[in-house]
């Protein structure tokens, strides 16, 4: 049958539970993205250091990995709705703490690091539980469409959230900006509370060493799932330039916090558009090859972003007064285009990687595998923050330029070494 170029909305029509969870997460996610951008801006405002901004990633990384995997073990034993609800409460409380610090004008960087770490850990557990829930709400045939819909919600989050954050921080300060997240997060509870009990199918060891070893033994027998993790870690480690945005807005392109919002939103707009027009992706059977091409395109786009920063670092094309700052409009526009292309490629890769994981993993193992998946997709960008932050000590543009080239070369090589991933067929899913 001929398919529309637009996203398939069948998951929303067929599963009201999925629809409510999707809507609640989309609204809450807007506030979460506001806080992510605002925390980076606040730390940079206090310290004037891109490396200090990247330390948010450093302090959250190990706890996020530990609790992400532990949360996955919980989701394979206990009611997944309860796991999601408890972790959502912890995430909301940590956001409220960040908000309180801002209203009290307590510019204490280490407290921001602690509260952001708690928030990240809780969000990681929530994400693994929610991802393990979704295949229980939908038919397998609808999983690619559900991934595309989640790409739309993520695009909305990252488009609206950072743009609002940049404007609000510049206009009213950090306290009111964080308050938006505290309010919008309540919508996440509405989606979770509407779910029934979702107990795992099959037997799984209780959280602990045996459960961890059981998951490790499964991954050892699952080369396609392993490879989906590896390609994402490579892409996010060497191609995540978000910690550069405050310095780019202040030192290279101009525009300050508004430029930070524009660049972050551009990435999300690319992801959003690729999901909106994701209908043709339903024709694709060879998901491994689709992931390879999408990630290579992502690397090329990040390389182009680094090239834009390099050109505007070495050449002064003149700045335009835009009312809100002294800004290089041409540089901002070109940087935004490269980031939009990167966001679109990353989202296409995510759609296929999600589908591979959800279609090939058994339910009794799904919580642990989703826990590892959430750790990968959240830890990867934080490793990228550290890589870009360290490279920026030399020159601002070197990290994305070198990282983009490494992504293309490494992915091209690895998928030819791991042939089963490149030959993965959606009609015959195999872990």
- Return the CATH topology: Growth Hormone, Chain: A
Corresponding CATH superfamily:
MFS general substrate transporter like domains
Uncertain spans: none
Major sheet: arrangement of strands: 1-2
Radius of gyration: 21 Å
Counted beta strands = 2
Kindly report the average pLDDT value: 80
Question: What does this 3D model show about the protein?
Answer:
With 431 residues, this protein is mainly alpha-helical. It has one domain: MFS general substrate transporter like domains (Growth Hormone, Chain: A), CATH 1.20.1250. The chain contains 17 helices and 2 strands. The chain has helices at residues 10-14, 16-47, 50-75, 80-103, 109-137, 143-171, 174-184, 186-193, 209-220, 223-238, 245-252, 256-276, 287-314, 329-360, 363-391, 398-417, 419-422, and strands at residues 320-321, 326-327. A two-stranded antiparallel sheet has the order 1-2. Helix 13 packs antiparallel against helix 14. The two termini are 28 Å apart.
């Amino acid at each position: 049958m001929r398919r529309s170029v637009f996203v398939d909305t069948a998951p929303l029509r067929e599963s009201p539970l999925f629809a409510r969870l999707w809507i609640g997460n989309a609204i809450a996610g807007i506030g979460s993205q506001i806080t992510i951008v605002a925390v980076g801006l606040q730390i940079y405002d206090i310290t004037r250091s891109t490396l200090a901004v990247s330390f948010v990633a450093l302090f959250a990384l190990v706890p996020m990995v530990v609790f992400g995997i532990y949360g996955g073990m919980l989701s394979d034993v206990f009611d997944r709705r309860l796991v999601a609800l408890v972790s959502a409460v912890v995430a909301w409380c940590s956001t409220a703490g960040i908000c309180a610090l801002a209203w009290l004008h307590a510019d204490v960087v280490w407290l921001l690091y602690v509260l952001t770490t708690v928030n990240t850990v809780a969000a990681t557990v929530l994400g693994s539980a929610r991802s393990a829930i979704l295949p229980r709400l939908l038919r397998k045939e609808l999983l690619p469409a559900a991934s595309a819909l989640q790409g739309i919600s993520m695009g909305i989050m990252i488009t609206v959230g950072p743009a609002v954050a940049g404007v609000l921080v510049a206009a009213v300060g950090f306290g009111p900006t964080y308050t938006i997240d505290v309010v919008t997060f309540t919508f996440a509870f509405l989606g979770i509370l509407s779910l029934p009990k979702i107990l795992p199918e099959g037997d799984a060891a209780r959280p602990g060493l045996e459960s961890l070893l059981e998951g490790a033994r499964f991954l050892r027998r699952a080369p396609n799932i392993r490879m989906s993790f590896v390609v994402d870690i490579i892409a996010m480690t060497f191609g995540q330039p978000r910690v550069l945005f405050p310095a780019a807005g202040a030192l290279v392109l101009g525009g300050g916090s508004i430029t930070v919002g524009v660049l972050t939103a551009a990435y999300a707009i690319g992801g959003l558009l690729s999901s909106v027009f994701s209908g043709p992706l339903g024709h694709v059977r060879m998901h491994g090859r689709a992931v390879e091409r999408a990630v290579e395109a992502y690397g090329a786009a990040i390389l182009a972003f680094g090239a834009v920063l390099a050109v505007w670092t070495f050449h002064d094309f003149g700045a335009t007064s835009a009312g809100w700052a002294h800004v290089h409009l041409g540089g901002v526009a070109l940087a935004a285009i490269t980031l939009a292309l990167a966001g679109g490629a990353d989202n296409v890769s995510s759609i296929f990687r999600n589908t591979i994981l959800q279609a090939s993993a058994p339910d009794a193992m799904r919580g642990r595998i989703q826990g590892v998946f959430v750790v990968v997709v959240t830890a990867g960008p934080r490793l990228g923050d550290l890589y870009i932050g360290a490279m920026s000590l030399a020159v601002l543009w070197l990290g994305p330029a070198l990282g983009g080239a490494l992504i293309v070369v490494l992915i091209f090589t690895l998928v030819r070494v791991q042939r089963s991933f490149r030959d993965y067929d959606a009609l015959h899913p195999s872990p």
